[in-house]
Design goal:
Distance between the termini: 22 Å
Radius of gyration: 17 Å
CATH class: Alpha Beta
Order of helices and strands: EHEEHEEEH
Structural class: alpha+beta
CATH architecture: 2-Layer Sandwich
CATH topology: Alpha-Beta Plaits
Shape: elongated
Number of strands: 6
Largest sheet: 6 strands, antiparallel
Helix content: 10-25%
Number of helices: 3
Length: 137
């Protein structure tokens, strides 16, 4: 299972003062999202002069478009900031096994950094019980 939940405050620059530039940047983002969000897992909101983006979903397997959205934001809206929490129970390589951990992607100042999660990891037993075949519930 590939689970993802994230949020971003969208800003065209770290010193966000020109509404016209913000509007133009958001239009570009909306066009990008409309091209790739076939699952309807995203939501864009505008409140109190801030544009925010929410994403949440579950897929059977890893999909790249989720982190691709955050990479696009880092490049095209470098004043944005937010977090993306991902749990991928198939995230196992020769170097490491992250199948029992959430990964946090931190977006700030045009950089997207992969970080460890300390709040919901390890997934078992923090979020879910270990498999027990003797349970009948």
């Amino acid at each position: 299972m590939y689970e993802f939940n994230g949020w971003v405050v969208l800003r065209y620059h770290t010193h966000d003062t020109q509404q016209e530039l913000q509007e133009e940047s958001i239009k570009g983002f909306i066009n990008y999202i409309q091209e790739i969000d076939t699952e309807n897992v995203t939501l864009l909101k505008r409140r109190n002069g801030l544009d925010s983006f929410l994403i949440s979903g579950l897929h059977n397997h890893y999909v790249s478009y989720v982190t691709d959205i955050y990479k696009w934001i880092a490049i095209n809206l470098p004043g944005s900031y937010g977090l993306l929490h991902v749990h991928n129970d198939e995230d196992i390589t020769d170097e490491e096994d992250n199948s029992n951990h959430f990964i946090v992607w931190k977006l700030a100042r045009g950089r997207l950094l992969r970080m460890e999660d300390y709040y919901l990891s390890p997934y078992i037993p923090t979020v879910e019980d270990e498999y027990d075949p003797s349970r009948n519930d």
